[in-house]
UniProtKB/TrEMBL annotation:
GO terms for biological process: phosphatidylinositol dephosphorylation. SMART domains: IPPc. Pfam families: Exo_endo_phos2. This is Inositol polyphosphate-related phosphatase domain-containing protein. It comes from Setaria viridis (Green bristlegrass).
């Protein structure tokens, strides 16, 4: 691993994480200062919340409170980007039939309730509430079968968000259907382009399945393209059309990478909470170390428990004690399937954690918080 010249630009190896954290923070602070010196105008730093959750095809109860996951009591985030997978069951009817909008609408209402903390609005109405405080407004939401992305900003920031658009890429059955793939949303914030990519990659823990996930990721990055106009408004000619051309990019979702080791040994390490030893065999990190995919991406240090696979409504991991061959195939070794990566200058991750209090699904939601620097060019907005 030490011989790979590109490894330092990818996800941090866990053995070197501590030394790289200090250096990366220093580089970011230096970068922010250099941007302010070299730019034509000023820079503004925003706090971006990114979250991902595979909800396992389960409809959320009406009283599901998302405030814990979204950390709304902190009241310190400017942008929320929430990505879901499997908001509907991935059966033939949902994959091949008309879009099932009811699940997305329900999640959207729960998000709004949590962000604005008003399940019952006051009599003054929305305009009065806007004057009262800076509420959150949805910039864009987009669904492809079970993948759903919802982007929100504070209402005072909404006028600085321009050219928002979405793109979907199916990578499932026949390499095109939407049971797997990605929904991507991009926009300009002031004069900086952002792109958020919500993925659900190929599943499976057999030999060769990691390569299928790599192929899905490569397909998403190559095929995703944004239109030249959104809502009838032509976009600037130089606005990026491909994911990797944007200034700040965050990729999140159920990436489905597993632990490449004997199941029995993995179980022992989980019981002992030896996360770092498990991560030495994490497929995603192994792929990165060999330079096959995700070149140039970063991930924060994973210090939390595996995000998959749990019994629903329980904190018990889903591995079956019965060793009979009929039950053996139902076995699921624990893994960090749910991840958040980023790339680009002027963006720094400050939090990365699992939210264990949500037991609706066999996955646990994950969240990350970023500081993102935006450029404001005086000649355009003076």
């Amino acid at each position: 691993m030490g011989e790979s010249p590109s490894l330092a630009q990818m996800i941090w190896p866990r053995s070197a994480a501590a030394s790289r954290v200090h250096r990366f923070v220093s580089e970011f602070l230096g970068l922010e200062k250099s941007i302010m010196r070299e730019g034509q105008g000023e820079t503004i730093k925003y706090r971006v919340f990114a979250g991902t959750w595979n909800v396992g095809g389960e409809a959320p109860p009406d009283d599901l409170d998302l405030e814990g996951w979204l950390d709304t009591k902190a009241d310190s985030y400017d942008i929320y980007v929430l990505g879901f997978q499997e908001i509907v069951q991935l059966n033939a009817r949902n994959v091949l039939g008309p879009k099932q909008r009811s699940a997305a609408m329900k999640w959207q209402l729960l998000i709004e309730d949590a962000l604005n903390n008003r399940r019952s609005a006051q009599d003054g109405g929305e305009e009065a509430m806007d004057q009262e405080r800076d509420v959150f407004r949805c910039v864009m939401s987009k669904q492809m079968v079970g993948i759903f992305v919802s982007v929100w900003t504070k209402s005072g920031l909404r006028r600085h968000v321009r050219h928002a658009s979405a793109s979907t890429v199916g990578a499932g059955v026949l390499g095109r259907l939407g049971n797997k793939g990605a929904v991507s949303v991009r926009f300009l914030l002031h004069d900086t382009s952002f792109c958020f990519v919500c993925c659900h990659l190929a599943s499976g823990g057999e030999v060769g399945d990691a390569l299928r996930r790599n192929a899905d990721a490569a397909d998403i990055l190559s095929r995703t393209s944004f239109l030249n106009s959104s809502g009838g408004v032509p976009a600037p000619v130089d606005l990026p059309k491909k994911i990797l051309d944007h200034d700040r990019v965050v990729l999140l979702g159920d990436l489905n990478y597993r632990i490449a080791m004997d199941d029995g040994e993995a179980r022992q390490l989980v019981r002992a909470r030896k996360w770092s030893m498990l991560q030495e065999n994490d497929e995603l990190l192994l792929e990165l170390s060999e330079g096959r995919q995700f070149y140039g991406w970063r991930e924060g240090v994973v210090t939390f428990a595996p995000t998959y696979k749990y019994h629903r409504n329980s904190d018990k991991l889903y591995w079956c004690a019965d060793t009979g061959h009929r039950r053996q195939r139902q076995h699921r070794a624990p893994a960090w399937c749910d991840r958040i990566l980023w790339r680009g200058k002027g963006i720094r991750q400050i939090r990365y954690e699992r939210c264990g209090g949500y037991r609706l699904s066999d996955h646990r939601p994950v969240r990350a918080v970023f500081h993102a620097v935006c450029e404001v060019v005086e000649s355009k907005h003076g």
